[in-house]
Write a structure and sequence with these properties.
By secondary structure, this protein is mainly α. It has 47 helices and 16 strands. A hairpin with a 2-residue loop joins β5 and β6.
Length: 1370
């Protein structure tokens, strides 16, 4: 990849990580890279092995899933990938070190994978050991462990810091500095973290070397020999005894330093505790903790020192707090807890010597004694004064004991209880105290166990409440009387305790008293109310409430009696307002008599109504038993409307009257005459049903007799109709001999038709739907058909009349011998007339069919003499026409004319039957007519306007003669004065002549008007395009032949005409056209072949030949598709050469893209590589591409190439025959130097000054990171950045070869951009003000990079900082 695409890798070294570049597989195979291809189908798995590239595409809609996995033997490839990512500063997906450690600690690894895992762990352990040793040698002695993980058994759940240089995850170790606490680097890039001294840096590690090697050797076998060998190897791997460094001028080993530190630590533990000494000692131990197991003694001593320091600081802190509290006795100061003090005093022996230890121990003993006294007082029933004394002693102790909280809680609870009890004793209002509160206070004092005088008073109050509760409960359990309950409530009226039973009795008593009052009020309202419905509801409500009372009352029976009376009055009111059944009213009167209220006015009125209703019922029974008139029934119904009672017999009377009215309504259509009927149809069955229904009516009616008379008339007509149908059936079954038609048969048919029509008229006049009417109509229709068929025997009918009669019997269901004879005769007559007439749209009959019809005439029993004669005459005409056809085909093909053929066809269509001779004539005529139609369809639009095919072909022949003249094949022919566009003689129209080819063109054909007649030096479009002065594409109008005829079609038509059986003039003319078209084709092929083989520089010859070919092709009315394509290709190649000539020899230089484009076009047209213009274009392209590639490399080399070489490359680019402005712009920008180091612009490592916009490198200005606003030392020399004096006096400083570019004067703040690569060249002036003139842009670049250093600042005071630089320059 690097050798094939060097430019891409130079611009982007990590190109392979971007997955945006694909190399042709053929190139990979040429470089011996194995390439494989595979087609993945559903259900297939594709595994990609390490260090292999894969790519693919879908052949349609697809859904696939990918997963990353790796077996243990792929771990070395993972390590290689991690190193590759680190080399290119690419962030990895996960930490390889984390994966190894987590799998080793928490994973289940089998024996096959353990070897690979052990090998990788040993590799990273050795690398970690090497770099930690280098850090120690470099002076980084500070170290500490990384923060532990929340879920160490999972990979990637918590993100580790990354190195700011190589962007890798720092799982095992990292280096950090206090100046940049948020920035981390790996051990390899510790020098690039900051500029602080190594002593300020700190090593962060997750595991010591001993732990790392333990993980690596944890996969060894578990035998004792293997373990011993493993320990030996591990000890040798992690041993640091040979690690040395210089300290104070002498070398000392890592182990010796550790031994000295251990001796110092032992001495510190024996002396009095000093915080600074412990801190210093522990800080010195940090340089040993990251090592292997040989530093275990150091780690143990660090643990002891840490514990001792923690213990001593705790003792000292407690002693200080005790002394502070004893001095101030302030409650805001927090005491120390006894538990914490006991935890510190529990150490035996003590870790180190602390002076406050013994005094703190005495205070702890005093606190323990006080705890015993408080626990004794809390467990016994003590007095209040004793508890308060103990609490005051606990508050004066400097150590906090948790029993003080219990003592304080008991005292505060006792005080709260006393307040509550005293409030209860002093209460005066009735039922103000809840009895549950008293019981709660009693239980609380039992739990507190304190001696108090208020306990007896509380007990006395509780005894009174229990006595009251017992009396009330006794009253509630037995039957309660209103009077007794009132006396008990009066006795306990002023008691201050709220007893539940007493409160319940009060509620019951209140409810009973309220009910008695409500009843007395309601009783007075009941007798005064007229609406007894409300009275009933009110009394029911009072009764329900009285039954629900817990106390017995004497007024409850009176309520029940009043409720019954109210119900009776309410029923009487309903009977008065709405009709009620007679039985209901009678029962209501009985209930009123029982309650003693029958004398009331409403009950007297009900008695009168009952008497009238009983009389009506007796009369209704009489008229129902006898068949009375309809008027009697109507009178009874009118009488019932005045009786306000529901009558039992009223429905029977109404039903009898309704049935009579319904019968009269149904009978009404049958009682009127048929003339009065509109469209309704009467049926005899319905009439019979009505007569039978009239016998069951309870009302006497006169219409019943009328319906019986109508029914008798209908039955008589049905008998007469049946007789006529029998006569018709007998007539159809008689066997007649119809030859010599008998007049008796015709008379019988006519008489029967008249009788049937009379019967139909009478039946219709009755107005009933008789089923025999349809049968009579069908018989009449059949008889009429027979009459028309018998009439055909007297004359020769037409085919239409026969067909009409034949279709007339198709829907009849009649049958018989007579009908069969008539049907056979009409069928023979139809066949005979069809054979004679031969309608145009019907199938033509054969001669044998007509002869068969003549034979069948002998079998029918009817006489059709006239039709028989017509058949014999048609057979004679057909035979005469066949003889004429045989005479025509006996002639030679030259004598068979097209007009004779058409006459035979017309005569055959008129008189001939279907035969082979007629088929041959029709087929030949159709073949010739189709051929002529195809010829007209293939002729172009310019020739289709001619009247006949012959004239059109002659017109095409003229165009071919014109084309042959242009090719030079008709040298003896006089040049016709025709337009080259429309082929029309130009003598009668205004035209122009081309000054180049001298051909004529009509003004209207080239889009000009009569005003342009005198136009001089006119050039036709053909000459313009072939000289390259006009645009052309393959779809241009020059080679479009919409109005021309395809030569292949003419050849095909000529071959089809060779099979004709007669002679036509058009075929001979078409043969001549094809011969002339092939002559034009040969002339065109000669020019095309010459143009394709021509490779010289002079293209004038080809231009003239192509002009002839194009004009001849356009003039000719016939074209060939393949020749047209070849001509287009030849014209395209010629125009390509013209364009290349203009491109290379033009005023403006061509760009590399234009040259590449023309090269691709030439190769796509298959132009010969030996062609003059192809060779020239290839040479220019190679030269331009080579120089452009070199220019791109130089522009991105960061100043590696010297300026003189760059200037030479710019001069070479300016003299190239191609336009390389973009590359020249990049090279000129490369010549511009920046910063104090005088290097080209680098956007990734530079920053611009906010004032002067000059660009500087971070490293040159010693900037650790980018800034939002940066001011260079020249514009702000008072800052802490390196001054010019520092740079000049520094031993590492090298004077740049060219001075710094000139800064502009301070200007307004503006947006700082990357310096423009297209900046203008400044032209310096002479002393007289005139401008210098440079020979080229290279000299301008040289002058610009050699300007003297000149900077200006805003304040003059700041110029003092530049004095060293000014002195040196002097």
């Amino acid at each position: 990849m690097r050798s094939s695409l060097p430019d891409l890798f130079d611009a982007q070294p990590d190109l392979l990580f971007q997955l945006v570049t694909m190399l042709n597989p053929s190139v990979l195979q040429e470089n011996e890279v194995p390439v494989y291809s595979i087609l993945q189908e559903p259900g297939n798995f594709v595994i990609t092995f390490p260090r292999s590239y894969h790519g693919g595409f879908n052949l349609g809609l697809n859904c696939a899933e990918a997963v990353n996995f790796a077996p243990a033997d792929w771990l070395p490839y993972g390590a290689f990938g991690a190193d590759l990512y680190k080399r290119y500063h690419k962030t990895a997906v996960l930490s390889h070190e984390e994966l190894l450690c987590v799998v080793a600690q928490y994973g289940d690894v089998d024996s096959r994978g353990s070897s690979y895992l052990k090998m990788e762990l040993l590799r990273i352990s050795d690398r970690e050991k090497s770099w930690r040793e280098k850090l120690w040698k470099s002076g980084i002695v500070k170290s500490s462990c990384l923060a532990p993980r929340k879920c160490p058994q999972y990979v990637g759940t918590e993100e580790d810091p990354t190195c700011i240089i190589c962007q890798q995850y720092l799982y095992l170790s990292a280096v950090v500095c206090s100046c940049r606490p948020s920035s981390f680097v790996c051990l390899e890039h510790w020098e690039h973290l900051c500029e602080c001294k190594p002593a300020k840096l700190r090593l962060l590690y997750r595991h010591s070397l001993g732990v790392l090697y333990d993980l690596a050797f944890s996969f060894d076998k578990s035998t004792s020999e293997d373990k011993a060998e493993s320990r030996s190897v591990k000890r040798q791997s992690s041993c640091l005894s040979a690690l040395t460094k210089k300290v104070k001028g002498s070398s000392i080993t890592f182990t010796q330093l550790a031994t000295e530190w251990l001796l110092q630590s032992s001495t510190i533990l024996q002396k009095d505790f000093v915080t600074d000494a412990f801190v210093t000692t522990l800080r010195k131990a940090e340089q040993f903790l990251w090592a292997g197991p040989e530093m275990d003694s150091v780690r143990d001593m660090v643990t002891n020192l840490t514990e001792a320091q923690k213990w001593a600081e705790g003792i000292k802190e407690c002693g200080t707090k005790v002394e502070l509290w004893l001095c101030h006795q302030d409650s805001s100061l927090k005491k120390i807890h006894l538990e914490y003090v006991d935890e510190l005093l529990r150490f035996n022996p003590v870790p180190c010597n602390e002076p406050h230890y013994h005094k703190l121990k005495e205070y702890a003993e005093e606190a323990r004694l006080l705890i015993q006294e408080i626990e004794t007082a809390l467990s016994m029933c003590s007095k209040m004064s004793e508890l308060q004394l103990l609490y005051s002693r606990a508050c004066g102790l400097p150590i906090y004991i948790k029993e003080t909280k219990k003592l304080e809680g008991k005292i505060s609870s006792t005080k709260a209880w006393l307040v509550s009890v005293r409030n209860c004793i002093s209460a005066k209002d009735p039922a103000a105290l809840d009895i549950e509160v008293l019981y709660k206070l009693k239980s609380e004092i039992a739990d507190l166990q304190v001696q108090l005088p208020e306990i007896d008073a509380l007990q006395n109050l509780l005894n009174q409440a229990e006595s009251c509760s017992c009396q009330c409960r006794y009253m509630l359990e037995g039957p309660m009387n209103l009077k007794n309950v009132g006396l008990l409530l009066q006795e306990w009226d002023s008691f201050t305790v709220d007893v539940p039973e007493l409160r319940l009795l009060r509620n019951y008593h209140s409810d009973a008293v309220s009910w008695v009052s409500d009843f007395n009020d309601a009783l007075g309202r009941v007798h005064r109310q007229e609406d007894q419905h409300n009275a009933v509801d009110e009394l029911k409500s009072i009764l329900e409430e009285g039954l629900s009372l817990k106390i017995q009352v004497d007024e409850l029976p009176l309520v029940e009696i009043e409720l019954k009376k109210a119900n009776c009055r309410e029923k009487a009111s309903r009977a008065r307002d709405s009709k009620m059944p007679l039985e209901f009213i009678q029962q209501l009167l009985k209930e009123a008599a029982m309650l003693g209220i029958e004398g009331e006015k409403q009950f007297i009125n009900l008695s009168c109504v009952v008497g009238v209703a009983m009389h009506w019922e007796e009369r209704a029974g009489e008229i129902l038993s006898l068949q009375a008139s309809i008027s009697d029934f109507e009178d009874m119904i009118r009488a019932s409307e005045n009786i306000f009672v529901v009558l039992a017999s009223l429905n029977d009377v109404k039903e009898a009257l309704s049935e009579a009215n319904s019968w009269l309504k149904n009978s009404k259509p049958y009682l009127v005459s048929s003339n009065c009927m509109s469209n309704s149809v009467r049926k005899v069955e319905d009439l019979q049903l009505l007569v039978s229904q009239s016998k069951h009516l309870k009302v006497s009616l006169e219409e019943r007799t009328t319906l019986e008379l109508v029914l008798n008339n209908c039955k008589q007509w049905e008998c007469e109709a049946q007789s006529l149908l029998d006569d018709a059936r007998c007539l159809f079954e008689l066997d007649y001999t119809v030859h010599g038609i008998s007049g008796d048969l015709m008379f019988k048919v006519g008489d029967l038709i008249a009788r049937i029509q009379s019967a139909i008229t009478s039946g219709v006049s009755l107005g009933f739907d008789f089923s025999d009417i349809s049968k009579l109509l069908e018989s009449c229709s059949t008889l009429q058909w027979c009459k028309r068929a018998l009439c055909f025997c007297n004359h020769s009918p037409s085919l239409e009349n026969v067909l009409e009669v034949g279709e007339g019997l198709s829907h009849s269901s009649a049958s018989g011998i007579l009908l069969k004879v008539l049907v056979n005769g009409v069928e023979w007559l139809r066949r005979a007339l069809e054979g004679i007439s031969r309608p145009c749209n019907s199938r033509r009959c054969k001669l044998t069919d007509v002869q068969d019809i003549l034979t069948d005439y002998q079998t029918i029993k009817m006489n059709f003499a006239a039709v028989n004669c017509q058949l014999e005459e048609a057979i004679g005409k057909h035979k005469s026409w066949k003889e004429q056809v045989h005479q025509f085909f006996s002639l030679s093909s030259r004598e068979r004319t097209w007009s004779s053929m058409l006459q035979l066809k017309e005569l055959g269509d008129t008189i001939a039957f279907s035969c082979s001779e007629l088929d041959v004539i029709l087929s030949e005529v159709e073949k010739v007519e189709n051929w002529k139609k195809r010829c007209m369809d293939n002729i172009g639009t310019s020739f289709r306007n001619e009247n006949t095919l012959l004239l059109a072909l002659q017109k095409i022949e003229q165009t071919l003669d014109r084309s042959l003249y242009i090719y030079g094949n008709l040298q003896n022919q006089k040049e016709p004065n025709l337009c080259n566009c429309c082929f029309v003689d130009s003598e009668d129209q205004e035209y122009l002549t081309c000054s180049t080819c001298m051909h004529c063109y009509h003004l209207r054909c080239i889009g000009l008007t009569s005003k342009d007649t005198g136009l001089c030096d006119y050039k036709c479009p053909y000459c313009e395009i072939l000289k390259g002065k006009s645009q052309y594409s393959n779809g241009s109008h020059l080679l479009r032949f919409e109005k021309h005829i395809d030569l292949n079609n003419l050849v095909e038509l000529l071959s089809d005409a060779e099979h004709f059986c007669l002679w036509i003039d058009e075929r001979e003319l078409l043969n001549q056209l094809v011969e002339k078209a092939f002559a034009c084709k040969s002339g065109l092929r000669e020019i095309v072949n010459l143009s394709s083989a021509y490779v010289n520089e002079d293209i004038t010859v080809i231009s003239q030949k192509l002009t002839i070919a194009i004009k001849a092709s356009k003039v000719g009315g016939v074209y060939d598709e393949s020749d047209n394509c070849d001509l287009e290709l030849a014209l395209a190649k010629f125009l390509w050469k013209v364009q290349v000539n203009i491109l290379l020899n033009g005023v403006q230089k061509p760009t590399i893209e234009q040259i590449q484009k023309h090269l691709k076009e030439g190769m796509s047209m298959e132009i010969s590589p030996e062609d003059h213009y192809m060779l020239k274009l290839t040479n220019v392209s190679c030269l331009g591409l080579h120089w452009a590639e070199l220019a791109k490399k130089v522009s991105n080399d960061s100043g590696a190439l010297s300026l003189d070489k760059v200037y030479e490359l710019v001069a070479e680019g300016e003299n190239l025959p191609v336009d390389a402005n973009e590359e020249l712009r990049m090279l000129r920008a490369r010549c511009m130097l920046y910063c104090i180091c005088r290097k080209p612009f680098d956007p990734g490592r530079m920053i611009a000054c906010y004032h002067c916009s000059e660009w500087y490198h971070f490293d040159c200005m010693k900037l650790r990171c980018t800034r939002e606003i940066y001011i260079c030392p020249a514009c702000n020399p008072c800052t802490g950045f390196p001054t010019n004096h520092d740079r000049l006096t520094c031993r590492k400083f090298e004077e740049p070869k060219t001075p710094s570019p000139r800064h502009t004067n301070p200007r307004k703040k503006q947006k700082r951009d990357v310096p423009s690569h297209t900046c203008k060249m400044f032209a310096p002036r002479n002393d007289d003000g005139s401008n210098f003139r440079y020979s080229n842009g290279t000299e301008c670049l040289r002058w610009k990079n050699q300007k003297a250093i000149r900077r200006a600042t805003k304040r003059r005071v700041e110029l003092q900082s530049l004095s060293p630089l000014l002195c040196i320059k002097r």
